[in-house]
Design goal:
This protein has eleven helices and nine strands. Strands 1-9-8-7-6-4-5-3-2 form a nine-stranded mixed beta sheet, with helices on both faces. The protein is globular, with a radius of gyration of 19 Å. The chain has two domains: 221 residues, 3-Layer(aba) Sandwich (Rossmann fold), CATH 3.40.50; 99 residues, no CATH class. The longest helix is centred in the middle third of the chain and has 17 residues. With 329 residues, the chain is of the alpha/beta class. The relative contact order is 0.17.
């Protein structure tokens, strides 16, 4: 096994994001009788194709995601997953599961006329990237993964039930405040019941509490501006919380707990880079380490001064370094 590539301090010269760009094409693809997904294309139309798989599930695309790629070298393809962002219907849970999303990616690949592409995803995006690559390894040129999340029960318990609360007790208390004490033995289940219930005021309060907790714990240094979106953007918070809790109460729709780690041998011929914040409280480093042990062919970079967010300086450095590595493969 290769040793983890990490340092006790930030790299001397940090790579920066590329300048902001706008899509040159946008559209919508009907992927089922119910769901239509919004997509975008930016960068070089003849460049290296890369597909961006956003987090959550339910987080939606962010314009800054385009900035991890050299726009002169990459054909940058992104989309809002079912129920997220500008996809419709918003926050819809019916016919919304991991394997439907995997096939949506394939439908988009065919629509875009791509034979093989680089797959880029962080947090839930890393989960979906792994599920896609293990299902369609012949379509993946390379994987760039950040903040590894494999949706094992132990990972969910650490963040939503018992673990992160030891580091962020203040944020945790605000998170659980909307749930009666008698139901706090299963917080994911308690939130899910309310997020899928009929009390609209309670639904919105729970969506804000759930989403604020995740954003409050995502960075090594808490950023109030980062949290404000969950507190003020009801559409975002509702889609984020509803879809996440839906996936989590159903175990990510995997055949068994730990499937993505157990089936990682399917990745052995795919070049990859794993980027992980040492102090990630949302998706703790153990998951990245477990993936590294069963997929040693991938480079493994630990950002020694970062948490979960893709916007932290050292995380940005390693992600841009990875996309530069793969832009001509």
């Amino acid at each position: 096994m290769k040793a983890a590539q990490q340092s006790a301090m930030r790299p001397a010269q940090l790579r920066q994001l590329f300048p902001a760009i706008e899509p040159h094409k946008t559209g919508a693809l009907k992927v089922s009788d119910l769901h239509t997904i919004a997509w975008e294309e930016s960068g070089n139309p003849k460049g290296q194709p890369v597909v961006i798989l956003h987090g959550g599930p339910g987080g939606g695309m962010n314009p800054s995601y385009r900035q991890y790629f050299d726009p002169s070298a990459y054909r940058i393809l992104g989309f809002d997953q079912r129920g997220a962002g500008n996809s419709t219907p918003s926050a819809e849970l019916e016919d919304n599961n991991t394997w439907a999303l995997v096939e949506d990616i394939e439908k988009l690949r065919v629509m875009w006329g791509v034979e093989k592409w680089v797959v880029f995803g962080g947090s839930w995006g890393s989960t979906l990237s792994l599920a896609y690559a293990q299902t369609h390894p012949d379509r993946v040129k390379a994987l760039v993964l950040r903040g590894i999340f494999t949706l094992r029960r132990s990972e969910l318990q650490f963040f939503y039930q018992e673990g992160t609360n030891w580091i962020f007790p203040d944020a945790y208390d605000r998170y659980v405040s909307v749930i009666p004490e008698a139901e706090r033995g299963d917080l994911i289940g308690a939130f899910y019941r309310r997020l899928t219930g009929k009390d609209e005021a309670e639904k919105l309060a729970c969506a804000a509490a759930w989403s604020c907790y995740e954003l409050a714990t995502s960075r090594l240094f808490v950023d109030p501006e980062y949290i404000r979106r969950a507190a003020e953007d009801a559409k975002f918070a509702l889609a984020f919380a509803r879809i996440e809790s839906h996936y989590f109460v159903h175990g990510g729709f995997f055949k068994y707990d730990g499937q993505l780690i157990q089936e990682a041998s399917k990745l052995k011929n795919i070049p990859g880079v794993i980027v992980q914040g040492r102090y990630d409280m949302v998706c703790p480093m153990k998951s990245a380490w477990d993936l590294h042990k069963v997929w040693p062919e991938a480079e493994f970079h630990v950002a020694a001064d970062a948490g979960h967010s893709c916007k932290e300086d050292t995380i940005v450095h390693y992600l841009v370094e990875a996309t530069e590595k793969f832009k001509n493969i």
